[in-house]
Amino acid sequence: MLSDKTLIVGPSWVGDMVMAQALFKAIKARYPNTMIEVLAPEWSRPLTERMPEVSASIAMPLKHGEMKLKTRYKLGKELSSTQYRRCYVLPNSFKSALIPFWAKVPQRIGWRGEWRYGLLNDVHVLDKQKMPLMVQRYVALAYDKSQPLPQKLPRPALVVRQEEVNAALLRYQLSSERPIMVLCPGAEFGPSKRWPESHYATLANHYLAQGWQIWILGSAKDAEVAGAIQAQTQGQCVDLTGRTALGEAIDLMSLAKIVVTNDSGLMHIAAALNIPLVAVYGSTDPGFTPPLNENVAIVKEKIACSPCFERLCPLGHHECMQKLPATKVIQAVDMLVSV
Fold this sequence. Notes:
globular, six-stranded parallel beta sheet, alpha/beta, 12 strands
């Protein structure tokens, strides 16, 4: 008897990979005995390792956007020996559907995208009005096309191990004795998503004065932003940008009393850790990819040109973020931590 294995062709962004866990949960609910294996960029392994539904991670040997047909064909042939029963293709591109086709996976499921008929043989057609949320679109793939979505969708829930949390604390000589606020001031997409460093600094100074610890998390690309916050807080924050691996960032974030973040991958990680969370929105829309967490406050200003979904403010003023005062975020933090 063939083992029941499911292949996922995963997304290339941190937030999307976190939200994809809702699909993994739905698949396990439908096929309890299936083993889920995720084909995705190597950076995503620390995420999938913290998802109990995932049995194995397979490193995608290609960068985001690369075609390289020969590499895709070779990988597809290698994966054919695993004899997956089904595959869910989460990206909408033509090239993302090639590997499961060449792997001869019998059931290849995904949304109609770039000319994928034939490559996929279970094609779903999206009604954006019925499914405005990204997580709805992921979860819907676990069901037959005629089935309605359940009223209560599964939510991402990352699991951390205490020994790894302790190891991260030791490595960075940190303590969890005083309350911790984690700031995530970066945004991979572009500057338009970023709340100004001066506002983050005002927020940090407010809670530093109350005896909190302020940890700043992000990639090496966020070091300049973190440095600006440090300069305005007399260096009292713990700047971890570019220092932690993704897995360590997840483990350290799990200790936070609250997280304040832009719309970013780290926002979705905080939500999946079920940490109280204040999400600052400007150029993007929380109606599409909101943090999937009940302990969340979404803070934004009513600006006529928002959301624009641009990497840089097309009008040059960035008012959607500039006009959002720190006092508004402080009120949201106080509301969540007092609950």
